[in-house]
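pasting for the record
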Amino acid sequence: MTDRAEHKQSALWENIKVIIQALLLATIIRTVLFQPFTIPSGSMMPTLLVGDYIFVNKFAYGYSKYSLPFSPDLFSGRILASEPERGDVVVFRFPPNPDIDYIKRLVGLPGDRIQVIEGVLHVNGKPVPRVQDGTFTSDYRQDPGSNVPVFRETLDNGVTYDTLDQSPISRGDNTQEFIVPEGHYFMMGDNRDNSLDSRFDVGFVPAENLIGRASVIFFSLGNDTSFREIWKWPANMRWDRLFKGVE
């Protein structure tokens, strides 16, 4: 074998090793630290919009089998577990079908009593204070409407965020009282009249199903623009949302 052929073979092998190392590093980062997600629906408007791309902090709550690619059944429960806080925006596996990822706001901790009365969230018998905070209109084709009333809620731990209240008589505006079981959480979307959450078929979310806490918006495209439509990016990029923290 000539020196030239040996050099080509060596360069090829070095390139393969770099690619393998990069893939391993990306897998480790995705598994252990941060995982990208895209927002497919308007259930978390106005906090998260359709077309937002976010990083989820997987270290925040520790790890379960759902933290791993393909969710292998290697162990149960969570390791290096940390308790989420009321008000966190959480990505989790849908309890009736753990192959599906959901994102909602955590409003109920284990032992909490949660109820919605005339559109007002109540935690342990106390209404969560809220004040009107303008209106919201989405650039998403299946938006909740124009000039939807926005209400800013403030939880007892100081976490504050905006919610939408399109109708005062939607089916989620008056609920039974839910008592959150040990090891479970109660989730609600910020778009209160257009969110399938723990008030409905999601039910209580087991701690094992938590993937992580939504951390930052790293990319955002409006007007139903597909990520593949690169030529539309300049006109439809939501520049003001890039690298915005999720609150």
